[in-house]
Amino acid sequence: MLTIPEYIEIRTAAGAPAAYLSPGADGLKDCWIDAELNGQCTLSFALPMTSEKWTNLTDANRIVAGGREFVIIKPDAVEISREGQKVWGKVIAQESWVLLNKKYITVSNDPADPTPDWGTVKILADGIPFPGCTAGSAQSALSYLLQGTEWSVGVVDVTGAYDLETEKDHLLANINKVQELWGGYFVWDNLNKVVHLRSESDWQNYTGFHIRYAKNLKSITRNVDYDIVTRIYPFGADDLNISGVNGGVIYLDNFQHTSDIREGIYKNQDIKDAQKLKEKATEILNSLSRPRYNYKVNLVDLRTLPEYAHEDFTLGDLVDVIDENIGIDVRVRLIRHKYNVFQPWECDLEIGDPLEYLANMIADSKKAAEFVKDALKPNEGIGNILKGFINTFATQINSSNGKLIWNDSTFEAVEIDGSGNPTGKRVRITPGGIGISTDGGQTFVTAMTGAGIMANTVIVNSLYALSTDDGFTKLMASGLHVFDQNEMERLIAGWWMDGATKRFGLRVTAADGTTTLLDDQGLLQTWQEGRADNVDDSHPLILNIYVPDETISIYKGLLRFKRLAFRAYETGASSGGSYSSTRTSNSGGSVSTVALSGGGGYETTTTEKDFGYFSQLFYTDTDQGHQHEYWDDPVGSNVTDYDGVHSHLVNAHGHDIYISPHTHDIEIPSHTHNVSINIPSHSHEILYGIYQSSIPSTVTVKINGTIAGSYSSDQNSINLQPYLIINQWNAIELWANGLGRIDATAFIQAKMGV
What we know:
There is one protein chain. The chain is mainly β. Among the domains are: 8-99; 103-198, no CATH class; 400-461; 473-520, no CATH class; 523-568 and 691-752, Jelly Rolls (Sandwich), CATH 2.60.120; 597-661, no CATH class. 9% of the residues lie in helices and 44% in strands. The chain is built from 7 helices and 54 strands. A hairpin with a 6-residue loop joins strand 34 (501-509) and strand 35 (516-519). The longest helix has 15 residues, at 274-288. 19% of the residues are buried.
């Protein structure tokens, strides 16, 4: 019974769970798996852009759904759209085996050339087989190719022995080449990293599942391809044919559907053995000699119901398709299955023979490049030009209804209808060029000459600039691309992906391959402002930088500064003389009081004088002299002497003087002082030099008044971008915590409108 999953899982590349997506919890919708036999398998879904799980949807992770592993690597893997008020992102992921196109391999089993040049694959049928494999088998070739990868080879039951030789093709291209040579169907098991190559004839898995009208069939479309070839001319490498192994005849016939002879050419330059060429041509002719039927079926998958739990099918199975009303009752192979992961009963199937159209072949860029290379190189005659055409489409069958007209100078391919009448379409080849006509050759709507290609419409996948033959210019589905000698993309004129957004216009990239100089958002321009000056805690250094109105976005804004020592410069100065007057005054005078503390004081003096002998002296001044009264010690009587002018001898003696504690009051009256200084004219000698002082320890940065940070060291990459405002002068202030000097530069890089 088919189980409806609750979610799809996102895993890391190592296999660890990263996130889960479900319709209920995440709003996931339109989740479809589209798997095609021998083709791509994709997972697509839509998720609201508001989901936080978009961070998990990257090329680094894997998505597991429906038993398969997917990876997001397509150029247009995410598409953004709006539905009313809601914005959705649509994801298209590919099955993870596609990552093999990101690997290259160098391998050889040729004993004579065991170490070929880089990118060379040389696996020969007569070389050394891979251990455990048959020489020349597809299993041996796949084992050599996948050796050293995380992949291994499973069941391989296709037969045949072929050489696989390529140069500078990625690993996936080489794996596909194995299928082209040996045939069969690839079955990829991404979760277990195993690839199988099953034979169309031996792989007949039938479970009994059938699609029937009035049971599970909703609608059916049948396409019939009557482009039949009954006679095929096979050619291999260097125009190898099969005459040596086919009784001298170079063609094969198969009239299983009609006896009409309808010719075609098959050429495969990879086949160098006539018998192998015959076997491959026989296999192809068996499919081309009958009508091919293809059915596109829209049905209801009933396997979710218990009563139909026994019915099962998978890609590559044989299924029955029955609709009695239109006469369909066939058993054919299921080659495509598209279904809704969370509503698996909604599904479309494609069964039968895969349809291939010539238009798809012509659009192949590699074959188109080979066409130009081979068909237009100088040749001696018309036969070589025709050979160039054949070599161009090396592995294709030319089975158009028509006739060939060849004379000495002209070769024409003329289309005819079912009655054998010309339709007017023809291709004419002459030594002068190639012309394509729709009116029987009267006019040519497309022509190719030595002057170039002239046409109303040219359809290609990739176009290389042939005018210079340098390989640097390519025209791809996304536009014109120009690369440099290092294979860095330097210019796109068209569209490109920017994350999940598709952008259009012209994009010019720098030599590093990542910096965008010009795109739809403008031209990348840079400018800067710098200066150095002394600062202190009240005088900052200010840079003013203008961001014009034409600025679309500021790509980068950086500030650098260096703390330096305060710097001063000294010079001399001359003078013409000078007069200076200073005046001070006190009103009302001034009193000063001094107090002496303590119990008085003594002063002792000693003087040597000759007064004779006496014990005590008293004297009184008179007009002409003075008189003395003294005691005469020997006599003991009082003597008075009235002599006039005379002298006294005073013997050496001492005096003791006692001064009692007291104060002094000093009064200074109001007064002024005038001082005049006259300096004559003079000059000073100039002393040259740079004088430095302190360095600020901290610098605070303000941008438009907002503090961006404080720093105690020099800075080289302060981010200005969040603070800058478009269409105004932006002030960048650097404040120091003390005396010093700052050298600063602001750098701006922005996208400007053009």
